[in-house]
Design goal:
With 492 residues, the chain is an alpha/beta fold. The protein contains nine helices and 24 strands. A nine-stranded mixed beta sheet has the order 1-2-3-4-5-7-9-10-11, with no helix packed on it. The chain has a five-stranded mixed beta sheet with strand order 14-22-21-16-17. A hairpin with a 5-residue loop joins strand 19 and strand 20.
Length: 492
């Protein structure tokens, strides 16, 4: 027991002396657990001695001009390295030697002029690479080829005029979901190389705010991305601009002002292939998405990517989706938010080959299916009812002579009730007079109650009128309307 204590004491003392020596050589740095922060200290070079237990190194906002070979060697636990806001113009060969476990590297806001092939060849575990806000004019064709686990790469706000899309079109980057090339100086896009990218990569390519020259093929590609709901287009719709005939002063937002592309052929939209499978599902129902591939064998690995950039692996995801051994994906109860493009990635471990398959899922409410029929039926029913009402009005107008059983007179008389009704139904009113020797009056209208004769049962008109005060003649001007039927005339 005494021996073990005697051995442990010198080791503890040695570790403490080493920590005190390192702290004295690097004043201002803060070390917390496995994190070392030396940011904003005006450092011109990386300290020679770094704690071997460090998993995160922060050298942001310093004056670093160059990184020497093996600057971060001897750090087996290093995962995150932050070197943003410095003055680095290039990287020496072997800068990241013996740092194969590095997964997050931030070189943003420096003065890098290019990305050479040897910069990141040792970083096989790299997942996130930040190179935005530099002066990069060129990315070499094999600069990213060794980053097989890369998920996100940010190269926006540089001076790129092109990018080697072909270097990742052979499905070498299985997990790449974000490639930000926005705010650069690219006048044209290699559309065929972009079309050869895996579907999961296409959904995360950001190309807005470039110096693109307007052309139909480019417009067709972005319009198709918009229809598929890619976030790169959906979230930056107004920033997608192009130059008409290459004129810098003639910039248009081609997704907002599509009239400039009205004469473009629809065939330009087929650049991304026609191997898309469209699936329509009613909300609440289940749906099975088949993963079609030409790869065969028992060593295949299937994986799906949802429209929300969520990876789905066997046996499923949150009890909402289920995967089968053949790679099929079942949506147990479809929801509206499940709509979008699903990508199936198939990897052959023996031959190091993979393929992707795309399924576009559209989920609609059940009521939407019968809506067109209900609307058409309601419209037709309304037309029929209106027609019946019009016919009833025209041909079923009540006639008082039908209701009374008084026999018609032997000879036609202007005082006859049916003659009054016939005058109503006759387009041209019959000639009537107010008395002997008077002219025809066409401007006087009355409300008919009962016919009034000159004398009835030996009594004159005046007596009959006084006995029945309601039986009187209404006179009016030509501009007033007091009759139900405008063609009714006075019957003496």
């Amino acid at each position: 027991m005494l021996c073990s204590q005697g051995v442990a004491a010198p080791l503890m003392l040695s570790s403490l002396m080493l920590h005190l020596t390192w702290a004295s050589l690097n004043p201002g740095c803060v070390k917390v657990s496995d994190i070392l922060s030396c940011s904003n200290l005006g450092l011109e070079q990386v300290p020679k001695q770094l704690p071997a237990t460090a998993a995160t190194l922060d050298f942001n906002h310093n004056h670093l001009v160059q990184l020497e070979e093996g600057s971060f060697a001897g750090l087996p636990h290093l995962v995150t390295l932050r070197l943003a806001h410095n003055r680095l113009s290039n990287l020496s060969p072997g800068t990241f030697r013996n740092t194969s476990g590095l997964r997050h590297l931030d070189l943003s806001s420096n003065q890098l002029h290019k990305v050479d092939n040897y910069y990141f060849q040792e970083l096989v575990s790299m997942e996130e690479l930040l190179l935005f806000n530099n002066q990069i004019v060129r990315v070499e064709s094999n600069a990213l080829i060794s980053l097989i686990n890369l998920r996100k790469a940010y190269l926006s706000h540089n001076r790129l005029t092109d990018f080697p899309f072909f270097s990742i079109q052979e499905h070498s980057h299985h997990f790449l979901v974000t490639l930000d090339l926005s705010s650069n100086r690219m006048p044209k896009l290699p559309l065929e190389d972009i079309a050869a990218l895996p579907a999961s990569v296409q959904g995360g390519v950001f190309l807005h705010n470039n110096s693109l020259i307007c052309e139909c093929a480019m417009y067709g590609m972005f319009r198709q991305w918009e229809q598929k709901g890619f976030l790169s287009v959906k979230d930056y719709r107004e920033e997608h601009t192009c130059l008409v005939y290459g004129e810098p002063r003639a910039s248009v937002q081609f997704l907002e002002h599509s009239r400039f592309f009205e004469n473009c052929s629809i065939k330009a939209q087929g650049l991304l292939g026609d191997a898309e499978n469209n699936l329509h599902v009613i909300a609440g129902d289940s749906a099975v998405l088949e993963c079609q591939t030409s790869l065969r064998g028992q060593h295949l690995i299937y994986q799906w990517v949802s429209p929300h950039q969520e990876y789905i692996a066997p046996p499923g995801n949150n009890n909402a989706m289920r995967m089968y051994a053949n790679g099929s994906l079942e949506i147990l109860e479809a929801r509206i938010e499940d709509s979008g493009v699903y990508w199936c990635m198939v990897l052959d471990r023996l031959q190091s080959r993979n393929e992707t398959w795309e399924v576009n899922v559209t989920v609609t409410m059940r009521d939407h299916v019968v809506e067109p029929f209900n609307t058409g039926f309601t419209t037709l029913l309304g037309c029929v009812v209106s027609l019946v009402l019009v016919l009833m009005y025209l041909y079923l107008t009540p006639c008082r002579c039908w209701c009374r059983k008084q026999p018609p007179p032997a000879t036609p008389s202007p005082a006859n009730e049916c003659s009054a009704q016939s005058s109503i139904l006759t387009p041209t009113p019959p000639a009537t007079t107010e008395g002997p020797g008077r002219k025809v009056s066409n401007n006087k209208h009355v409300v008919f109650l009962e016919p009034i004769k000159e004398a009835q049962n030996g009594r004159p008109r005046e007596a009959l009128t006084s006995e029945h005060p309601k039986l009187h003649v209404l006179r009016s001007d030509a501009d007033s309307v007091t009759s139900v039927f405008s063609d009714t005339t006075i019957v003496p």
